[in-house]
């Protein structure tokens, strides 16, 4: 699983970079799809929080102290500032560490505690795909507005 873990973390870095490089006016305003930039970032991070659980006990989502939803189709009553996302990223990183320790202990072919029809390896690959989908979408938004995009991170630790 070392390769999958390494590639996952490089993918996660690209999502994290978007939080840092996105200008406030883009972060705080709905985009062409009517959804705020921050909502896409939160949705992608929440996918990790949900799927990288080591048991199927109920999920207690991260508390922002605000009413927000990770579902893109639903309207959030509150707004997440970039600092909110920075704090959340730390929690997500801890979730990842716990999950990859669990994978090392159980093995990549072990059934996912969240959805037993898939393996732990499936969960990693699914999250890489999900994050990359949102990174690509959000990079397109930045590019169309003339803003520097999140750089590609290759799987051996060097970026472009």
What does this structure look like?
Helix content is 56%, strand content 0%. The chain has a single domain, classed as Four Helix Bundle (Hemerythrin (Met), subunit A), CATH 1.20.120. It is globular. The longest helix has 25 residues. It is built from five helices and no strands. It starts with a helix and ends in a 16-residue tail after the last helix. It is an all-alpha fold.
CATH class categorisation: Mainly Alpha
pLDDT < 50 stretches? none
The proportion of residues forming helix, as a percent range, comes to 55-70%
Strand content: under 5%
For this entry, give a set of tags.
single chain; 160 residues; mainly alpha; Four Helix Bundle (Hemerythrin (Met), subunit A); 5 helices; 56% helix; globular
């Amino acid at each position: 699983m070392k390769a999958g873990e390494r590639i996952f973390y490089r993918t996660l870095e690209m999502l994290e970079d978007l939080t840092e490089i996105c200008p406030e006016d883009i972060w705080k305003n709905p985009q062409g799809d009517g959804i705020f930039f921050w909502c896409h970032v939160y949705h992608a991070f929440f996918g990790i929080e949900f799927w990288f659980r080591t048991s199927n006990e109920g999920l207690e989502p991260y508390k922002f102290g605000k009413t927000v939803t990770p579902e893109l189709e639903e309207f959030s009553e509150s707004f997440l500032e970039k600092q909110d996302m920075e704090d959340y990223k730390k929690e997500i990183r801890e979730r990842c560490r716990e999950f990859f320790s669990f994978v090392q202990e159980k093995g990549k072919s072990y059934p996912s505690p969240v959805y037993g029809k898939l393996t732990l390896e499936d969960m990693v690959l699914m999250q890489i795909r999900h994050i990359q989908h949102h990174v690509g979408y959000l990079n397109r938004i930045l590019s169309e507005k003339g803003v520097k995009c999140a750089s590609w991170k290759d799987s051996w630790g060097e970026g472009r």
